[in-house]
Design goal:
Blueprint (H helix, E strand, L loop, with lengths): L8 H9 L7 H7 L3 H19 L3 E5 L6 H10 L4 E5 L2 H8 L5 E3 L5 H7 L6 E5 L7 H15 L2 E7 L3 H6 L4 H14 L2 E6 L3 H4 L15 E3 L11 H12 L10 E4 L7 H7 L4 E3 L6 H9 L7 H6 L6 H15 L24 H10 L5 H7 L30 H10 L5 H7 L1
Helix pairs in contact: 4-11, 7-9, 12-15
Length: 424
């Protein structure tokens, strides 16, 4: 036939394509496997490599905290499968995004934790629980359950600063006991961060400045502290959690900023004024925070591969935003006419902005100043990431009930919940 006129490899290629159908059934099965057999053969050869390259799921306990929320965002940007544990799933989704995998868990209940963990597959654990009387018991229960599964490859725990542990003040006891327990049960990395730069401007808590443009009182106003950004701490944790070889991860890291900073100096440079004040915190704890957190560690830079965020830069940016929020010095709190451009499209005429504002019930300048800058206005570029949209219920910086949020959406022309989340 025509095939016999071909020579060498061409003959065998033609014979292979025809499936060697003239041969015996045994020869057909061995020399010319079908599509299913070829797929299984390739899968069998590549399975070890596929298994080695598969990224284990990361379980985040404390996903709505200062560091946990930043970690979830980093992992989601890298397409790492993530499970966020928390008491309130709806609140977690408002903070982390509607597509985040959130599971309701009581860290004091072992069965609840076990039901939330991945089934029959390895995983890695991140733990950052709030300081409190039950902190050690909650972390102990979590560590015991994860160790019992024999599937937890690595655990990253956020502890407190080393000077606090050495001075045995503040929340040292719970962290010391949890670190010792973790060292005996799981492969681990312990992060000991300095004070977070984000907590300086928190509206709640003993270390937060009062609301406004930055003027006020602070217990550490004149204390030099090597503040560290929570985003940098989350980035260090993420690198340890996605490491190919967790045995090479550091056991303990002291995380600080690149330099010590005083709040009063930064606020004065921005035209504000902050003075020291008293606090309800224990005196020994405050003394350690004010005198022993100025030492700079290079562990953050070595873990990240670049210099961490300077606290002074973060403070200056936050002060500018807060001055705009409160309309200080006669400034328009809504940043003129550009405010809605981040929420809808690249530019909007002023009349359209005014129509949308009135549809939301904003009638005068006092309404704008009361609400402040929307969460995703151009004056807050650090928040303008697609996965940071929380939805229309708080894009103005205020919480709205679902029914009111739905009316707002319909006023804006968003007719369905699907389009609502498409916008968000």
């Amino acid at each position: 036939g025509p095939a016999r006129q071909l020579s060498g490899n061409a003959f065998w290629l033609e014979d292979w394509r025809r499936g060697i159908r003239r041969h015996s059934s045994r020869c057909e099965q061995v020399l010319c496997p079908g599509p299913l057999m070829r797929t299984l053969l390739v899968a069998g050869l590549l399975w070890p490599a596929i298994k080695a390259a598969r990224q284990p799921t990361v379980v985040v306990a404390g996903a709505t905290g200062t560091v946990g929320r930043e970690l979830v965002r980093i992992l989601r940007r890298q397409d790492v499968p993530t499970i966020a544990l928390g008491r309130d799933v709806l609140r977690a989704k408002r903070i982390l995004g509607i597509n985040a995998c959130c599971r309701e868990v009581d860290l004091g209940d072992a069965e609840s934790i076990k039901a939330a963990l991945p089934v029959d597959e390895p995983f890695r654990l991140f733990v950052a629980t709030p300081n409190g009387p039950d902190q050690f018991q909650l972390e102990k229960t979590l560590f015991d359950v994860c160790a019992a599964t024999n599937r937890c490859e690595h655990a990253v725990k956020v502890s407190t600063a080393t000077p606090v542990l050495e001075a045995r003040v503040g929340p040292f006891d719970a962290h010391t006991r949890a670190e010792a327990l973790l060292a005996d049960s799981l492969s681990h990395t312990i992060l000991r961060p300095s004070l977070y730069a984000q907590t300086v401007f928190s509206e709640h808590g003993p270390l937060g400045l009062p609301s406004g443009a930055g003027d006020g009182q602070h217990v550490l106003a004149d204390a030099p502290v090597a503040y560290v950004s929570a985003v940098d701490v989350a980035a260090v944790a993420a690198r340890a959690l996605v490491s190919d070889d967790v045995s090479r991860n550091a056991k303990m890291l002291d995380l600080t900023g690149p330099a010590a900073t005083t709040i009063s100096e930064v606020v004065q440079q921005a035209g504000g004024n902050v003075v020291s004040c008293t606090s309800t915190l224990p005196a020994d704890f405050l003394r350690v925070l004010a005198t022993q957190l100025s030492k700079v560690s290079h562990d953050t830079e070595r873990a990240l591969g670049f210099e961490p965020t300077a606290a002074s830069d973060f403070f200056e940016r936050e002060l500018r935003r807060r001055a705009l929020d409160c309309g200080k010095n006669g400034a328009i709190a809504y940043n003129g006419r550009a405010v809605y451009t981040a929420n809808y499209r690249s530019s909007l005429p002023f009349d359209e902005v005014r129509r949308k504002s009135r549809g939301l019930g904003l009638r005068c300048r006092e309404d704008y100043e009361e609400l402040g800058v929307p969460k995703y206005a151009p004056s807050r570029p650090e928040d303008m990431f697609p996965d940071r949209w929380l939805g229309w219920d708080d894009y103005l910086g205020v919480r709205r009930p679902y029914d009111e949020g739905r009316r707002v959406a319909q006023t804006l022309g968003i007719s369905s919940e699907l389009r609502w989340y498409t916008y968000a």
